[in-house]
Amino acid sequence: MSSTHSAFSLFQEGTSSLSITKLDSVINTIKHYIPKLPSCTIGDLHISKPIVQGGMGVGISLSGLASSVANQGGIGVIAANGIGLLEKDYYKDGQGANIRAFRSEIQKARSLSDGVLGVNIMVALADYLPLLEVAIEERVDIIFLGAGLPIKNIPIKKIRANNIWTFHKSSTQTKIWP
Ligand SMILES: Cc1cc2nc3c(=O)[nH]c(=O)nc-3n(C[C@H](O)[C@H](O)[C@H](O)COP(=O)(O)O)c2cc1C
Question: Hey, what domains does the chain have and what are their CATH numbers?
Answer without folding.
Answer: 1-36 (no CATH), 39-177 (3.20.20.70)
